[in-house]
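User: Can you fold this complex?
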Amino acid sequence: MTGKESRVRSALLAAGRAFVLSFASIVGSVTLFVLAVTSIAFVLLGVGLVTTPWVLEAVRAHANQRRLLAATWSDVRIPVPYRHFPQDLRTGFTGQVERTTLMLKDPATWRDLRWLLTDMTAGYVLLTLSFGLLAYPVEGLVLAAGLWRVFEDSTYWYGFVPVGDQWTGLAAAALGIAIFHVGLWASRPLLRLHFVLARSALAPAPQQELALRIDRLTETRHEAVDTAASELRRIERDLHDGAQARLVAMGMSLGTIEALVEKDPAQAKKLLAAARASSAEALTELRDLVRGIHPPVLAERGLGDAVRALAMRMPVESEVGVELTGRAGAPVESAAYFAVSETLTNVVKHADADRVWVDVHHAEGMLRISVTDNGRGGAAVGAGSGLSGIERRLGTFDGVLAVSSPAGGPTMVTMEIPCALS
Amino acid sequence: MRVVLAEDLFLLRDGLVRMLEAYDFEIAAAVETGPELTRALAELEPDVAVVDVRLPPSHTDEGLQCALTARRSRPGLPVLVLSQHVEQLYARELLADGDGGIGYLLKDRVFDADQFIDAVRRVAAGGTAMDPQVISQLLSRRAQDKPMGGLTPREREVMELVAQGRSNGAIASQLVITERAVAKHTSNIFGKLDLPPSDDDNRRVLAVLAYLDRG
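Assistant: Here's the predicted assembly.
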């Protein structure tokens, strides 16, 4: 009984969703298609240069909405294939023109437009069927209940049943019930079919997917090279101004001591003490530098203990949970470590938190790390924030970063890096 | 006193051997790798082991692991661990068995021969020698906590030295105060931290660390 009930409920739910979606499909898609085509045509007149990005953004939003619904309602995943705009895009009219050109060059734009056409036709028909099969039977029942009287003089066709008297009215009801049963069975698959159709229109072709992948790889490679270069510069500067300078000073002191040791032993002793202090400072600086390049705990113990050691250095209360069955590759470990380190630094600097939880685990080929604090929230990935730096770092490994930080907290930063453990 | 020394860098190993011999220690063995260390600790039964954390062949924390394993089969075996960096994580692991006879110092500390030798002797006698950096990390982390905040600056100074494993006499001479004053400070500190007073160096450090660990 409950199985049947839930089937009816889920069929009705699908029908309701299809009903709502049908408006988006017919009204939204038709309007956007007309606007887009007009706007693109007006590019020749100049006006379109300004309007096209707005209209196409709306089309993308419309398509993204459908992608989201496909994933949440029918578990159909449609990839998002749009190319990213370069970060140094100009503002104002020139920027808008550039944007138009970039968007018109993006094959995804043309796929979107083609999808609008299928959506307003075949897509719409599928949606109508999905809810119609459950709505139409209502009319059959109403006819049987007495509406047939209205059609006593002229015949009314309900499906293939000519309704004219009580008997044919009952036949209409029977047909309605039959259709209803078909509807119960078909409305969910039909809704799903609608999304599958959308996927076939929207998903990028394999070649295009490759092109997107290459774009992404080029971008992350540039970032990785830039990061590595600036790291090397920083290390060079630190060594030059720090340990190297101290060793020079020490060498000089030792030279002077050599000259003084017989003439003025007291002075030589003083210089020796200074040289020793210099060497201790050089060691401290080198130690800090090493920690910044590749923390010794990470090399000795791996990610789990390195994160534990890091959390112990935090001025706020911390709890660390680690579930790792082996060690990830050294570059991944290092990236993950510095991502956690940076996130924790952010927590201390901005979150005003008094507790932080770090969780590290590996499942299904993904290293997942979450850092949660009970601070004031309001953190966002954006230009200049430390979080976008972490995102870039992880990008080199196809890793991603997500931030959930409502105002008032708590803040949760989640990182995922695909990798295997050894 | 017989010492087993494990250090993979020749210069440092050689220097340590010279220094220890100069202070009348007998070098039972000076080894390079983890497996050699394990064998030496099992066969030679030294009075104290001086061990570098990172040793070949794995170049991870092999020295630390060997020392911990050896202490499991021979509880209380005095071990002084040397490292290029100090971590609270390691300090806690070393102290976890509560048997004492543990030292954990930065390699820099060998610059000051007198202090270093003092630390070796303290560890060999079953006491504790914690690097000031470990202690200051722990203390700064707890700086905002109420019980720690209740300490006067002088008590805090004493507390740091207590946590390093120094005796009252050593603390008195370092701070240029009388031993009686030190004893008064320590009993005040233990009172403020709700710790039972004790004269035993090692138990004092363990109590302090246990308190700090309680978080």
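Residues 301-418 of chain A form a domain with the Heat Shock Protein 90 fold (CATH 3.30.565.10). The first strand of chain A starts at residue 156 and ends at 158.
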